[in-house]
Amino acid sequence: MLVDTHAHLNFRDYEKDLERVIAKAGKAGVAKIICVSSNIADSEKAVAIAREYPGTVFAAVGIHPQKTDPENADTPENQIGLLEKLAGNKSVVAIGECGLDFSPAPPGETDRPRQEQESLFRGQIEIARKYSLPLIIHTRKAFAETMKILGQNITGLPNGGVVHCYSAGKKGIAAVLNVGLYFGLDGNLTYDPGLQSVAKLIPAEKLLLETDSPFLTPEPYRGSRNEPANVKITADKLAEIKNQSFTEISKITTNNAAALFGL
Q1: Distance CA 57, CA 3 (A)
Q2: SS3 label, residue 165
Q3: Other C-beta atoms lying within 10 Å of the C-beta of residue 78
Q4: How far apart are the first and last CA of the chain?
Q5: Which of 53, 138, 52 is nearest to 94 (CA)?
Q6: Contact of 101 with 66, CB cutoff 8 Å
Q7: Which of 9, 113, 165, 238 is 20 to 30 A from 216 (CA-CA)?
Q8: Three-point CA angle 216, 83, 166, nearest 5°
């Protein structure tokens, strides 16, 4: 059995064939999927999808550091309040994705001031603490700043969380381990030699498998929409890198997901 711990099933990319995508994942041995959010509307949809597919899809509710809903004029404080209400839902297993991103916003998103990003991040850490939920952490061009905030606030978070799509290289491994977090590995593991060399050094008991669907499609399907079923490809590659069997890697990463998210 495999778990895709990070998929955006709440994106428009899956509006027409969500049922087929989930069924395909099941046939590939992906028994559980965490539907991750980037704004309030996404979070509401994640909860709705998890209710529709109980025991298979679980929700993570959160606010991305960059503004993924530029038309939303609501204040960050109000958004945190709305998020807190959603966090109490039984289908919610994590807060995220949240964190810091100091890179230029991609098309369809807008930059947030750093102070606003930090305020939103800290607010979501407090929600995670209140509901005893782990964090799904997004960090880009802001690793040191993200680790500093986590180091200051990790007390009281029983499960810590995961650094989604880990990209801080060999030098960042110790910092992540020091605050008790997991490392998320995605489809780029199949074609990024640098990430492959980093993955060799991360303890297997701290690794989680992700797709980041619809993004980061693994080889040999790069250029097409990613799906949770493809987490099996990443697991295959990780097994090769770690010189372990597919069965061993599947068991380890599934157990890690169960421990972190209470699946």
Answers
A1: 10
A2: coil
A3: 12
A4: 13
A5: 138
A6: yes
A7: 113
A8: 30
Mean pLDDT by groups of 10 residues along the chain of 263 residues: 97 95 97 97 97 97 92 84 95 96 90 94 95 96 94 76 96 92 97 97 97 96 96 97 96 97 92
Cβ contact 228:211 at 8 Å: yes
Domain membership of residue 185 as a residue range:
2-261
Q: Six-digit token pair at 207? A: 């690794």
Specify the amino acid at residue 107. P
Bond before 220 cis per omega within 30 degrees: yes
* Block residue for tokens 């204040």: 75
| Tokens describing residue 92 | 């919610």
CATH number of 158's domain: 3.20.20.140
The torsion angles phi and psi of 203, rounded to 5 degrees, stand at -55, 135
Q: What is the CA radius of gyration of the chain?
A: 17
pTM: 0.95
Number of domains in the chain: 1
Euclidean distance between CA atoms 163 and 77, whole angstroms: 24
d(CA 143, CA 100): 8
